[in-house]
Structure formats: structure tokens, C-alpha cells
Amino acid sequence: MTDAHEAVDSSTTPADDAIVWQPSADYIERSRLRRFCERTGNATIDDLRTWAAADMGRYWDTVVKELGFVWDHPYSSALSLPQGAPWANWFVNGGFNYVTNAVDRHADGPTGTKLAFVWEGDDGEIRSSSYRELQRDVNRFANALRSLGVRKGDRVGIFLPAVPEAVVAILACGKLGAIFTPLFSGYGEEAVATRLRDCEASVLITADAFPRRGTIIPMKQIADAALRTTPAVRTCITLKRTEEEVDWTPGRDIWWHELVRDQPTTFDTVTTLADDPYMIIYTSGTTGRPKGTVHVHAGFPVKAAHDLAMCFDVHDDDTVFWLTDMGWMMGPWLIAGGLMLNATLLLYEGTPDYPNPDRLWDLVENHKVSVLGVAPTAIRSLKSHGDAWVRKHDLSSLRILGSTGETWNPTAWRWYFEEVGGGKHPVINYSGGTEIGGGILSCFTIEPIKSCSFGGPVPGMDVDVVDDAGIPVRQAVGELVIRQPWVGMTRGFWRDPSRYLETYWSRFPDIWTHGDWTEIDEEGYWFIRGRSDDVINVSGKRIGPAELESAASTHPAVQESAAIGVPHAIKGETVHIFAVLHPEHTATSSLAEEIRHTVRQQLGASLRPEYVHFINELPRTRNGKIMRRVIRAAFLGLPTGETTALENPDIVNGIIELGAQYLENQSPR
Predict the structure, then answer these.
(1) What's the pLDDT tens digit per position in 245-261?
(2) What is the widest separation between alpha-carbon atoms in the chain?
(3) pLDDT by residue (tens digit) across 275-325?
(4) Neighbours of 72 (CB within 10 A)
(5) In angstroms, how far is CA 614 from the centroid of its own chain?
(6) Assigned fold of 2-16+533-666
(7) Structure pTM?
(8) In which residue ranges of the chain is CATH 3.30.300.30 found?
(9) CATH architecture of 19-350+426-520
């Protein structure tokens, strides 16, 4: 822990980032979004947004026809609002099962032999499946679930690593009309139990264990502990991923391979309505009871396919790889959206830097990935290993660089753009949420891009930035809001409608308040400045942590950082920076002072950090989100809430110790 208090006489504010990427004729010619604009009579994306906002029902009706989705029977209207915007009813009375569109229509057609996915394990094992083979496996597992008594509307927990069987299980639940709940593979027993109890699951699907960084991670052991407090779960299906010995409960436990062995390979997909639930996915909040967001067949999957088509320009000749756990929203998002577009998915079980720091680039090269999605935190980590690990690989298959999960700092963004993409490919920055079913803001392959920016709202999303009174603001930071309902929005929290309304709809009447602090610059580019509940207020000056972190990361010693506000009797709050250094740098008080000075130069004297703390890692979820609220709570000695969702929960203890030292030093002597 280091502090410094010397005054600095001058400060500078950096100019706004220039446009760094322009779409080539090839990107414009290929673009699905461009063709969609033309077919709807709109010259630009802004025109399309205006056209959509004028009649959201018309927009999404046009989308599902454009994407060629199959309906068991037609809907009577695209949108109905009998209970108001929070409970919008899309594709009223339409018969729609997303698995028909993700698997069956491809398997039964001329693309049946096309690769649906390729999978690579942590240990290098590779498996693949065509659409027809995937349909066969999904049918067998749907029959297996039915043989266990699972019926339409029943809840099934899926606690698996990123293995092919996770895809099969997810799709089999949808085909059967059951509702699945994805569970992060790194959860502890209580996190698993809490979610299973809340959704009242009757079946849990897990694995004996799985390899991660060459170490065997137990899963059945955690599942067994969780099931001691979840009596509603009557069956536990276990996949034999390793040869680890596991405890067994006769009458409850059954091996996956034994269950599916004699099951038929045909299964008539259950007819479901457009608004029938197919998934309950829990938000990864760090305080309070987890929120089970309910998603429906013609909601989240349609939104995922739309965004992959319109934002990432995914076609049926693409191989799409998003580095994610199946328990986070980007896993089900990729499965539903990517398969509905007849693309090929790459699934990966391991980490991006094992056994060497070029594992991610090796995957891209070997599997000819064309659309790559990562979290900025992964890029910051990989960048620290140097350029040579990237340059040794042929990444010429890449066409789109995607990112989501965290705000960027310019240094990491430029490295991703220049070193990984060769300065030729767009970085499609994409931000939304579990409750959204996809993106609110995005970049696009037919518009110029500034580093770290968003080009604007995803079409079909009526989005604005407003001040505390709900008045639109520009060139100033405000709350990100959505003015109209959209396809993909959650149908509320599972059996907790009042909490849903309080969380998103209580700030402004009939307007969704998302909780992101956002700014639109003078050229119309959008920037997310952090969560609005993470806002730091220093002597009346409000600032988001992302700006402070970007400023700190301009110092060459800083690999990544997190900023929090700490209560102060006079200023309200002061800024504390938690910095992770590049390996060649050593934590010293003089280095802390340099970082404080760098932030002061970037943002002004009033926002200079009071303290810079050096730590080895930042607490983050496996999908890359840095959990600032955990840092703040741990540092101030407050309840941290659930931490089993973290990739590295042990780091929290070090932050608690730093906080105890700080508070002791602040105590009167």
C-alpha cells in the first residue's frame, strides 16, 4: 500500500480518440446489415434505428422473416402490451421452438453434413459434430430426459464445463420444452444449491470432473454437496469426463453414457409458444440473492441470432469462437444464435494461456476462426506476455474481432486491433447483459470505429442517455436507458416480479434503466464509463472507474487496474487504484507516486488517486468481468456477498488484508 501527496502544477486532458478503422469495400459488400437496411428502405443505420423505434413490432416482424425462421404456426401480432412495457408479449400466440431453427431445419436440409461445432479440450482432445450428428445426439438425450419423467416446463440444472455434452443438454431441454438453468463450472456448492433451490430444479446434469490448466477440477463432489440441501432434485446425471472416482447415490445418480445408450435417435420437437420459457439464467451479482432472469423461445435466441447477424455479420461460412463458460450468458447466446444462423462454432474447455501464452492464437489458427470474441481483461493479460506469441501464428482467417464483458483501455484495445487483427479488422465492441438477451450498444462492420467506442445502439433497441431527471444528455455522462421493449428482454425474475420491476423499471416510468454510466461524444460515438452504482464522487465530481483505470493503464508499468471510491470525511470519497503490474516491474512507493501523477496528468488534480495499491490479480468472473464491488467491500471490511463466481476467489483475502492495514493507519492514535 502506497500513498503520496505532493502537489503537481499542471495537467493535460487527452484529445478524443481518432477514428482508427474504416470499412473496406469487401466489408460493405458482404454486410447483412447493409442489405437489411436496403430492403427496409433505410439509407443508414441511423435511419434504420429511427424506422425501428417508430414501430418496434414492425421491426422485429421484419427481422424474423429476414432470418427465415420456421414457425409451427404463425403469430397473430408481433407485439402486444396489455400489461405495459415491462411485460411485453412478443409474437403473440405464435408456435416457435428455437431448437427447430437451431438444429432441425439445418440437419434435415442440404446443410446436414456441415459442421455445427468443433470442440477442443483443455488437454488438446478434439471432437466435432455435423448438424445431423448433433440432431441425433440431441434427440437421444431428449428421449433420455423424457424417460426420467422430465416434461415441458420442468427445470433442469446444467453444471458442466464447456464440453460438447453441454451443447447437447441445452438443446435437448429446449427440444423437450423443459427449462434449463446454466451453472458456472467454477461455482462452489452453495452457489449451485442456491440456484437449484430457487428454480426448483428436478434434475441436475454434471460431470465427474474436468481438466483445467492440467489439474483435475472436481464437479460431482461439489454437486453432491449442493444436493444435500436441494431435495427437489430427484436425479443427477453425471458425464464421465475424466476417470476420477466419485461418490454414488443409488436411485438418484446415473451415468450419462448409460442413460443414452439405448435411446432412439428420433424425437419430435415439442411445440412451444413464442413466450414459453426455455431458460432461467442467474445474474452474477456479488451481493444479495441471485436474480433468475426468465427467457423465452422467441426472445433470447432470436435476439442472439439478430445481433450475430447485424452486429458481427455472421454468415453460414463463418467459424465463431467466443471465449466463455457455458454458465455465463455468452455460452447459451453463442449456441442459440450461432446455430440458428447455420454457422460453425468453436468450443473450448480451457484457458487462453495454457499450456503456453499462445493457446488462444493456436486455436484461432488451427480451427480457422473468422469471428473471435473475448473480454478485454483476457487481452490485457495476453498482451503482458509480449507480441511474439501472437506473431508466430497465422491469424489470416480472422475477419471480426469481438469484445464484451468489460470496458477497454486504449492501450489494450490498440494491441488487440493492431497485433491480433493486423490493423485490418473491426473490433466490434458489444455491451448488453443477461437480462437483455444480447446487446444494447455495438459497433458495426459498415461504419468507422474509434478505439474503445460503440458505434451506437443495436438496431431494434430504442436507447438513450439521460440525466438524473430523465432528460437526454449529450457530451456528458448519464444513465443508459431503453425507452421501448425489445425482443430478448427477460420476462422478469423467476417468481419475483416485484424485484424485477424495482430493479429496472422504478427509476423512470415505463423506461428500463440499465445501470451503465454512458457518454455520447460530439461525433455521436458512445462510451460506457462504468456501472452507475460504481460511480465515484470526489468533492462533488462524479467519475466512472473506467476513466480512472484507463488513465492509470497509460503508465507503462500497469498491466490492468481497478478503481474504487473510499469514504472520506471531507471529500465524500477518494480514489483508490488497485494495480496489477507487468512482470518486469516491481511494486515500490515511487512507482505508486508515478501512477498517481499519471492519472493526475490525464484527469486533473482533483481526481488524483489518494492511494495506489499493488496486487497480483484483480478479482474477476471467468467471463472477464472485474468485480469492483467485491474489491470495495473487501477493502472496507463489508460483506462481499457470493464470491464463488470468481475465477480467483482467494485474491479477495489479500484485499481484505490491505483494507485492514489502511483502516488501521487511518485510526486516531
Answers:
(1) 999 999 999 999 999 99
(2) 79
(3) 999 999 998 544 457 889 999 999 999 999 999 999 999 999 999 999 999
(4) 15
(5) 27
(6) GMP Synthetase; Chain A, domain 3 (3.30.300)
(7) 0.85
(8) 2-16+533-666
(9) 3-Layer(aba) Sandwich (3.40)
